[in-house]
Design a protein that fits this description.
CATH architecture of one domain: Alpha-Beta Complex
Oligomer: single chain
Shape: globular
CATH class of one domain: Alpha Beta
CATH superfamily of one domain: SOS response associated peptidase-like
Number of helices: 3
Strand content: 25-35%
Helix content: under 10%
Structural class: mainly beta
CATH topology of one domain: hypothetical protein yedk fold
C-alpha cells in the first residue's frame, strides 16, 4: 500500500519537470502527506488536453457517489483489479494522472513493533506515482476533485518491507499514462525495476500526521534491544 509520502518540492520545479501549462497552485510543503490532504497532481485537462498541475484531495470520490459521508474514499487501487472495478474502471479509461513525490514511507513488521522506512529514487529524481482522478459535484453544486494511487506487487527490494508498492512511472512513460500516446497504459502497472529505489529507516514520529518537517526523512537506526541479565546464581553457603 501507500499511505504516507513526502511532497515538499516547489510548484515551479514540479511544473518544469512535468511540463504543465496552467497557473501554479499554492502548494504547502509537507514531509508527511496523509489521506484527506490536498496534494499536487499532474493531469491532462479534459478540455484543453494540456498538462495541468492542480491540488486534489487524496481519497477518491467517484462522480456517482450519492452519500459523501458514507462513501469509502479509497487512497489506493490495486493494479490487478483496477480495470474491472466499478469504482475505478471509468477513471482508468479517461482520467489517469501522475502524483509527484520526493519519497514515500512504508512500515516493516518486526517481532517487537513496526519500523518505518523512507523510499526514494536512487538517482535523486522525483517519484511519479500512477494515479486516477475523479470529479464529484455536491448537491450544493461544489466540485471536489480527488485522486487515488495505484499499487502493485512489491519488487524484490520492497518485498523486504511489504507485499505491495505504488506503481512508479519512468519519465518516458508519462505521455502514455496521461493519454497523450497510443493506448496500452495498463501495461505500465508493474513493479519498479531493480535498483531504481533506495530505502532507509526513519523515526517512528512519521506515524503521527501532526509531525512534519525535513527531520522525518533523516536516517534513524532503532536501538538494539537490551540483553536480558543472567539469572542470579545460588546463594553461597
Amino acid at each position: 500500500m501507500c499511505g504516507r509520502y513526502a511532497s515538499f518540492l516547489p510548484p515551479e520545479l514540479i511544473a518544469r519537470l512535468f511540463g504543465t501549462k496552467n497557473p501554479l497552485p499554492n502548494l504547502k510543503p509537507t514531509w508527511n502527506m496523509a489521506p484527506t490532504m490536498s496534494a499536487p497532481v499532474v493531469r491532462r485537462h479534459p478540455e484543453s488536453e494540456e498538462r495541468h498541475l492542480d491540488l486534489l484531495t487524496w481519497g477518491l470520490v467517484p462522480s456517482f457517489t450519492k452519500d459523501f459521508k458514507a462513501a469509502r474514499k479509497p487512497i489506493n487501487a490495486r493494479a490487478e483489479t483496477v480495470g474491472t472495478s466499478g469504482m475505478f474502471k471509468a477513471a482508468l479509461a479517461k482520467r489517469r494522472c501522475l502524483v509527484p513525490a520526493a519519497a514515500f514511507y512504508e512500515w516493516k513488521a518486526t517481532p517487537d513493533s513496526k519500523v518505518p522506512h523512507a523510499i526514494a529514487r536512487a538517482d535523486g529524481e522525483m517519484l511519479a506515482f500512477a494515479g486516477l482522478w475523479e470529479g464529484w459535484r455536491s448537491p450544493e453544486g461544489d466540485v471536489l476533485r480527488s485522486f487515488v494511487i495505484i499499487t502493485t506487487e512489491a519488487n524484490a527490494q520492497m518485498s523486504a518491507l511489504h507485499s505491495r508498492m505504488p506503481v512508479i512511472l519512468e519519465q518516458a512513460d508519462w505521455p502514455l499514462w496521461l493519454g497523450e500516446a497510443d493506448s496500452g497504459a495498463e501495461m505500465l502497472l508493474r513493479p519498479a525495476a531493480g535498483g531504481v529505489l533506495r530505502i532507509w529507516p526513519v523515526d517512528k514520529r512519521v506515524g503521527n500526521v501532526r509531525n512534519d518537517g525535513p527531520d522525518l526523512l533523516e536516517p534513524h537506526v532503532p536501538p538494539e534491544p537490551a540483553e536480558a541479565a543472567d539469572p542470579p546464581g545460588p546463594n553461597p553457603l
